[in-house]
Design a protein that fits this description.
alpha+beta, Jelly Rolls, six-stranded antiparallel sheet, 2 helices
Length: 234
C-alpha cells in the first residue's frame, strides 16, 4: 500500500508540473505574439509647415483589431520643410480616442522632445508603458506644440506615405497654443495627401492578463489532481 501511495504521489506531482508548465507556455506564447503598424515603407513627400506660431498639431488616425490591444510605443517623424527658420522646436506626442472628426479623450501625453535645428529626418518615438486600447475603436496619434506655450517661429515637414497603407489618414489643426481646441473642434485633412498616411509606427501586443480559457485549464487540472489524491486516501 505504501509503495502504491508513493507512486501515486509521484504521478500527481508529475501531472501538476505538466499542467502548470502547459499553462505557463500558453500564457508566454500569447504574450510573445505582437503586431506592428508601419507606414514608413514609401514616401510621397512632406506635409508642411508644422510648428509655430500657427499649425501646432499633426497626426494620424488609426484603428486596431484582433487581440493585440496594448500599445507599447509609437513613432511619428519630422524633417526639413519648404520654408522654415533655423531653430529647434519642442513637441510632445499624444494618443487620443478619435470620434470621427476630433480627439475626444487624451489617453497619453509624452514628455517634451526637441526637433533638431538642421531639419534632418528625426524619429520621435514614445514609450507608453503599455496603453490599453479597444479592438475596433479609433484613435489618433499626433505631435503638438500647443501645450508648450509660445516658442520662436520654427516650422518643419512631416513625411507621408505614397500609398494608403492602413485604415485612417493624416489630420491636422491650426490651434496655435489653444490645446483645448483639439477635443472641442473638428480637425482638418489635407487634400493633396488624401487618404494616404503620415509616417507612423506602432508596436502592439496582447493584453498580458491570461485568457479565461487558460486559467480554466490550470484551475480544472489542479482541482482534478486534488480530487484524485483525496479519493485515493479514502
Amino acid at each position: 500500500m505504501n509503495g502504491d501511495y508513493i507512486m501515486l504521489k509521484k504521478i500527481i506531482h508529475s501531472c501538476a508540473v505538466i499542467t502548470i508548465a502547459v499553462t505557463v507556455f500558453c500564457i508566454a506564447t500569447s504574450m510573445a505574439h505582437a503586431a506592428t503598424i508601419d507606414t514608413t515603407g514609401t514616401k510621397a513627400g512632406d506635409i508642411y509647415n508644422f510648428g509655430v506660431p500657427k499649425t501646432a498639431t499633426y497626426g494620424q488616425t488609426f484603428s486596431i483589431s484582433g487581440t493585440d490591444t496594448v500599445l507599447n510605443s509609437f513613432s511619428l517623424y519630422l524633417e526639413k520643410g519648404t520654408t522654415r527658420t533655423n531653430t529647434t522646436l519642442n513637441v510632445r506626442g499624444y494618443i487620443a480616442s478619435w470620434d470621427g472628426s476630433k480627439a475626444s479623450t487624451i489617453l497619453y501625453e509624452s514628455a517634451t522632445q526637441t526637433m533638431n535645428a538642421a531639419g534632418t529626418l528625426q524619429e520621435f518615438k514614445f514609450s507608453t508603458g503599455g496603453l490599453d486600447l479597444v479592438s475596433g475603436n479609433w484613435y489618433v496619434a499626433f505631435l503638438s506644440t500647443s501645450n508648450l506655450g509660445v516658442q520662436s517661429t520654427s516650422q518643419f515637414g512631416m513625411p507621408y506615405s505614397s500609398v494608403d497603407a492602413i485604415p485612417g489618414q493624416f489630420v491636422y489643426m491650426n490651434n496655435s497654443t489653444n490645446f483645448s481646441q483639439l477635443t472641442t473642434q473638428a480637425w482638418s485633412t489635407a487634400s493633396w495627401v488624401g487618404t494616404n498616411d503620415a509616417w507612423f509606427k506602432a508596436d502592439l501586443s496582447p493584453d498580458p492578463v491570461p485568457e479565461p480559457s487558460t486559467m480554466l485549464l490550470l484551475g480544472s487540472g489542479l482541482v482534478g489532481l486534488v480530487g484524485l489524491r483525496k479519493k485515493f486516501k479514502k
